[in-house]
Amino acid sequence: MIVFKSKKFNELTTKELLDIMELRSEVFVVEQNCVYQDIDGKDHEAIHIIGFNDQKKIIAYSRILAKGNAYLEYPAIGRIVVSPKSRGKKIGHRLLDISLQKTEELYPKETIKISAQSHLVPFYNTHGFTSIGEEYLEDGIPHIAMLLKK
Fold it and tell me: End-to-end distance of the chain based on CA atoms, in angstroms?
């Protein structure tokens, strides 16, 4: 059973922060073979959505950013990640659903923007997101901007 928690930066324990960074690095840097600056100065302003397994290990994560932090006109959800060992169990769908619920709670009726890896567009489409604009490279990986209008 996965337990999801929502925390502000100052509510994270040192271990939770380290485990979040380890998961993000495992997937976004190592698995995707992408050297980029993951620690971007936005984590301290974010709401962190954390999925813990039965052993209290972090296996899923996303962060919510206020309007003006990632995008001038929209709140955003980013760094959406599920541990490779935990995939194929619909955890990503649960993570995104919880992230969307929290974003709606914080920013009612606001359109949400994400920068989605292009191969994940069908996943985000199932949650109501629609692509806008042209595909672009972000850190060498094809991405597309997507909106979820409320």
Answer: 30
